[in-house]
Each structure stands twice: as structure tokens, then as C-alpha cells.
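Researcher: Good morning. I'm working through a list of sequences from a screen, and I'd like to move beyond sequence-only analysis. For each chain I'm collecting a predicted structure so we can compare shapes side by side. This is the next one on the list. No need for commentary yet; just the structure.
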Amino acid sequence: MKKMDAMYIVTTPFQIMSAISLCVNHKEKADLYIDAQFEGADELAEKIRDRGIFDTVVVLNSVSAIESVRNAKGRTSRYRNLVRVYTHLDENVKEILIPDRKYIKMYATHGVFIANLLMLYFSKEDILTRTIFFDDGEGSYDNRDMFRTSALAKAMTRMVLKAKKLRMQKRYYMYAPDLFIKMYPKNVVPVLQLPKFNQNEKVLEHLKAIFEIDDSKGIREPVVILDALKEACLSKKDDERLVRFYDRLQAEFGDENLIVKRHPRDYRTYENPIRTYPYPTMPFEIICLASDPQNMVLITLLSTATIMPKLLLDAEPEIVLLYHLYDRLEGNDEDRDAFFDHMRQIYSEPEKIVIPDTEEEMDQVIEAIREKIASKKNEG
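Model: Good morning. C-alpha cells for this chain:
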């Protein structure tokens, strides 16, 4: 039996970045398990192996327990497959875990299916591996269901553990503990600081190599539109208004000062296209590592990427949120307002987060940005 400090379960590139940061900062002997829910997982795994950060890197492709639940069509089918997975828990876990490994800790983000499966397995078999949750970006701070357990999850737990207790997490590692505590005041689990990327040169070196980050992929324009999937949350009329607003920003600031980071799943074409960032699938948190987000103005309807510079690098770009100016078809503005109010409280300059309520207020914001651009040009 090989004793290891930790195992990490990740499902996204962002979670991989956080796992690398934790592992390097804690100097752990650990394995990385990648649940391949994104394109290019195998290629990314190979780059991680080349860096020697983890003892073993496993990509969980074609694991029957995962596939049966993920590919289930309809609620009844998913429930039936879940029961089957948990009924045969031991054999399904054997498909996941590297044989003959013993872990002190398992790191995962909240709500990951494989992590829940393994938590039950460790509890059932009296294995002393403890579960620790780590930051998963914006969803870790404003998911109102964060601490709720579904009736189905409770039923599966009772079925597997019977009279035993579930071995729950002992702590959270978050990039912004203060924000997390403000959002979840009833939480009683210790919340610890997950180091910012720029606090450890080795972490930055690994991330830039693995994600092929260099200066050529940075954003140098002072104003960045972080586009969202507008058609999913706006009426056709307001969608057209937003596109016209983008056109206005282009005219106000000029091509050399403005760029759009389009959403990876936005395949629309525009009659009057604005210059776009040429790597549309690259997450904004990765782009920030090649840029200077502290001096950016981020304009967005409601992109959650706006909080990443503060979370990951302690950078404070100016943020202009437009959602009060448009009638969204989904979502709750009160929840958004509360979240960004808490964000202001962890900014050293809270006035840099702006949510205009009227077109007149937006005009004032645009004028202030234009003056700032002109001032920096004069300084140069």
C-alpha cells in the first residue's frame, strides 16, 4: 500500500489550476484525477505529467459509473442508474481509484459526483481519508444551494451507510475567505486562504507552461467587454439594444482601446463587428496571467469572470455591470446585487465596482472611462 498525502478530483481547467496551487503550496505527494468533462483533457493531462507536480495523473475516461449517470435520459432513468451505482459502490470505486493507494486527504469542489461517491465509500469502509473542499470560482460564493442536501442524496447516504456517519469535510480552501464568510454567515466549517497565483512563482511557472500562456496572449486594451450568452437571458429586443450599445462603446473609445472577449459558446455574427480576442475558448482567468487586469475596465451584462482578477491575483480592475439596464428573462437581481455588494467590501477601492441604474448614469461612466484613457495617453 502506497501512502499519499492527497488526491485531487477536478472536472474543469479552473479546478486544475486551483489543485496545482494547493499541491505546490502544501508540498504534497498527491495524485490528480481528471473527470474529463471538457475538450482536450488528455492533452492537458500530458502537459501536467511533464511538470512532475503530481505523482500520478489519471484521466477518468469511460468509467461506467460516471457514464451511466451522466448519459441518463430523464429523471427516472437517472435515479435508477444512481441507485445501481450506489448499490454496487465498491466495484464502481475500484474503476476510479488507483489500486493500493492510501490517501490522507481528498480535495474536491462542492457537489462533484465522483467526490460524493468516494466520500460514501470512505465512510462505509472506515477509511480515514478526509474530504476538503476548495474554490470553484463564482459558484462557490453565490450558490444558495451550497449547503443544502437533496432528498435523493440523503436517501443514497442512508442506503449505503445505514447507521454509519458520513465523513464530511474539515475545512474549505477559498481564494476570498472574507467573501465566502459574508455570503454564508451560517457556515461553521473553517475557511482557509487558498494562495493567490502570484504569491508563488513556481505556481505561476507551472500554470503558464501547462496552459501555454505567454505575453502574446495577453490583453493590452484598457477596456474589455466580457460578453455573456445574451440570447439565453435577454429578450430579442434587449439583445439588439445590447449589441447597439457595444457599437456605441466602439465609437466612444476607438478600436485601439476596446476588445471583446466573447463567450466560448457564442457563435453569433455581428453586422458591425468589434475587435475580438483571438483565443475565444481560453478562460478569462488564464488570460489574466498574461495581462495586467489591475488597469483594465471590464464591461459586462453579467459575466462571472469579472471577479477572477480579485480572487486569483488580488487585482482590482474597474467593473461596470449592465444588468440593471436590461430586462433579463432569468435570474434574480437582488441576489446579484447582494453578491456584488459583498464584492465591494473586499475591494480596497469599492467605488471601482459600478452598476448603473439609468442611461444617464451610464453616460457618466462612459465619460469617466474616456477621460481616464486620455489621461493615460498624455502620461505616456
